Every structure is written in C-alpha cells, then in structure tokens.
Amino acid sequence: MSPFRVGERAVVRLGNPDGHTRVPGYLRGKCGEVIEILGKFVLADDSARGIRSPEQMLYTVRFQAEGIWGADGAPGVSVTADLWESYLEGAT
C-alpha cells in the first residue's frame, strides 16, 4: 500500500544530501500533487553509491510553476518530477 494517493498533496523534503540525488534543488520545500503512482523501485541515490537498499514507492508529482518560482512562474504551467517516497512528506 502506498502512503500517498493520487490527488494527494506532498512536500519535497528540504536538505542537501552528500553525493548523488535525483531531487531537483528547485523543488526542495515545494508542495505538489501526486498524479501517478509508478510502483516500487530501488532508490537511485543508494544505487549510485553501490548501496543495496529496499525498494520504495516512486511517484509522479506535479508542481505549478508559480508555486516554484513565484511571480516568475508562468500561470497555468506545471512541472512534473518522479520522486521516491523518502523525498516526500505529507502536506500540512
């Protein structure tokens, strides 16, 4: 069972991990909407370091451009990113 459901809001965790990460810096701390549950996959960050870790859920999350870049974001434009469960937390 997935902790996040389609249509649910999620926030990308803050932080600047050492080494490889698939989290775009411009999305850290931003809130988006889960639009697809892709299934369980190995966390790319760990795989790049040669670490064998359990698979975790991967989601496609949509972010509104204005929510990322404020007034510089074009209205009606969105960005999607595929993000692992450990990158996300529930929106409050």
Short description:
The chain has about 90 residues and is mostly beta strands. The protein has helices at about 45-50, 65-70; strands spanning about 10, 30-40, 55-65, 80-85, 90.
- Helix/strand order: EEHEHEE
Total DSSP E strands:
5
Strand order of the largest sheet: 4-3-2-1-5
Assign the CATH topology.
SH3 type barrels
Report the principal-axis shape.
Answer: globular
Beta-strand percentage?
35-45%
The assigned structural class equals: mainly beta
Described by strand count, sense and barrel closure, the largest sheet is: 5 strands, antiparallel
Count of DSSP-assigned helices: 2
Q: Quick check: average pLDDT?
A: 89
| Top-tier CATH class | Mainly Beta
Report what the structure shows.
It is a single chain. Helices cover 11% and strands 37% of the residues. The chain is mostly beta strands. It has one domain: SH3 type barrels, CATH 2.30.30. Strands 4-3-2-1-5 form a five-stranded antiparallel sheet. The longest helix is centred in the middle third of the chain and has 5 residues. The two termini are 21 Å apart. The model has no long low-confidence stretch (mean pLDDT 89).
